[in-house]
Write a structure and sequence with these properties.
This protein is mainly β and 210 residues long. The protein is built from two helices and twelve strands, in the order H-E-E-E-E-E-E-E-E-E-E-E-E-H. The protein has helices at residues 3-17, 172-178, and strands at 24-28, 34-37, 46-48, 80-85, 91-93, 99-106, 114-119, 122-123, 132-135, 141-150, 156-159, 163-168. A hairpin with a 2-residue loop joins strand 7 and strand 8 (122-123). The longest helix is centred in the N-terminal third of the chain and has 15 residues, at 3-17. The N and C termini lie far apart (173 Å). The mean pLDDT is 82.
Length: 210
């Protein structure tokens, strides 16, 4: 490549790289080479008509959005849950072992919540929205009671303080001592089973010797 051609190419590249607002001039030097410059310096230079570069503005880069946190609705709670009946350390005398437990909560039950009664650590009855829980055939002796509020999944929301009660039931033997079994009682009263009914003596007719 001749020196003149190299200068021409360099001048063209210079024209393309200069800012679009700068004027470009061209003149022929003493050796007959065409020179491009933005500083003619008093030479007989001609302005060069430069076309704007075919460039596109950079597309805006969207900012990364922080992940949206889904907040769970808080489970409605209770200020208190308590057993109001029977009272702690109460003695219940019931030969059938029947016991009614009354529960209260503040506030009252929220929708979907139920009461559950635990006796000695196990569920004593089916959960229900009723605050009165009836139990049957409770064994004699001491028992610990705890009332719970459970949600729709059966999970405990809040529990009461435990209380201890005592069930007194008269034994069958004690009942028989107080009220002995009569002939008509056998097979009727629980303490008078038919198997304990004494055998009846048969009347043997008197046959005189002839």
């Amino acid at each position: 490549m001749s020196r003149g051609l190299r200068l021409g190419v360099l001048g063209l590249l210079l024209a393309l790289t200069l800012p679009s607002t700068a004027a470009i001039y061209s003149y022929t030097d003493a050796d007959g080479n065409r020179v491009f410059t933005d500083r003619p310096g008093g030479r007989a230079a001609e302005p060069v008509d430069t076309k704007p570069s075919n460039s596109m503005p950079a597309l805006p880069v969207p900012l990364a959005q922080p992940p949206v946190k889904v907040m769970k609705a808080p489970t409605p709670g209770y200020a208190s849950v308590a057993i109001v009946q029977p009272e702690a350390e109460a003695t219940i005398r019931n030969n059938a072992g029947e016991l009614t437990v009354s529960v209260t909560s503040d506030p009252p039950l929220h929708p979907g919540h139920r009461y559950r009664l635990l006796m000695d650590g196990a569920a004593a009855a089916e959960p229900d929205v009723s605050p009165a829980i009836a139990l049957e055939n409770v064994d004699r002796g001491s028992h610990q009671l705890i009332a719970e509020v459970i949600d729709i999944k059966g999970e405990t929301v809040q529990s009461s303080a435990p209380i201890t009660v005592y069930m007194m039931r008269t034994s069958l033997a004690q009942r028989r001592m107080v009220n002995p079994c009569k002939k008509a009682d056998y097979g009727v009263r629980p303490e008078c089973p038919i198997k304990d009914k004494p055998k009846e003596k048969k009347d043997i007719p008197f046959v005189p010797f002839l």
